[in-house]
């Protein structure tokens, strides 16, 4: 199993995750997210071939999204398709995937970024 890592390409922090996005790896994932946030660059999450995912990972993702948005930076997801285990976790936890964030104006819903990677929020999708 490869360790999660971060690299900088074209003024963007790319976080490559491993196959386990669970409480067992929360500390490593959290450290990467903090490092990415401190670089003051847009972030792209590459979930890779994810075999397990739990609510801890989704909570960390939402936290990173909020931190970046407060700095005016974007967070995107590269996987297409997103690993089914992530989508199943989102669904099983009852998250509603909207075109907009219910907490931050002019932001796309974090869960929607996983459900529809590459789809950007339209100006008509306002609160």
CATH homology superfamily: STAS domain
Residue share in helix: 25-40%
Q: What does the radius of gyration come to?
A: 14 Å
Q: Architecture in CATH?
A: 2-Layer Sandwich
Sum this structure up briefly:
By secondary structure, this protein is of the alpha/beta class. The chain has helices at residues 26-38, 55-70, 84-92, 110-115; strands spanning 5-9, 12-16, 20-21, 43-46, 52-53, 75-77. The chain is globular.
Record keyword descriptors for this entry.
127 residues, Transcription Regulator spoIIAA, alpha/beta, 4-stranded mixed β-sheet, 4 helices, 6 strands, single chain
Secondary structure blueprint with pairings:
Elements: E1 5-9, E2 12-16, E3 20-21, H1 26-38, E4 43-46, E5 52-53, H2 55-70, E6 75-77, H3 84-92, H4 110-115
Parallel strand pairs: 2-4, 3-5, 4-6
Antiparallel strand pairs: 1-2
Helix pairs in contact: 1-2
Could you explain how this protein is built, in words?
It is a single chain. The protein is built from four helices and six strands. It is of the alpha/beta class. The strands form two sheets. The protein has a four-stranded mixed beta sheet. The longest helix has 16 residues, at 55-70. It is globular.
């Amino acid at each position: 199993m490869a360790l999660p890592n971060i690299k900088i390409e074209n003024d963007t922090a790319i976080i490559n995750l491993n196959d386990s996005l669970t409480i067992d790896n929360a500390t490593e994932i959290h450290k990467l997210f903090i490092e990415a946030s401190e670089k003051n660059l847009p972030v792209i999450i590459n979930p890779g071939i994810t075999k397990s995912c739990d609510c801890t990972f989704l909570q960390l993702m939402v936290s990173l999204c909020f931190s970046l948005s407060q700095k005016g930076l974007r967070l995107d997801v590269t996987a297409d398709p997103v690993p089914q285990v992530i989508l199943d976790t989102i669904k099983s936890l009852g998250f509603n995937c909207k075109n907009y964030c219910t907490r931050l104006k002019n932001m796309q819903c974090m869960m929607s970024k996983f459900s529809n990677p590459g789809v950007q929020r339209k100006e008509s999708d306002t609160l």
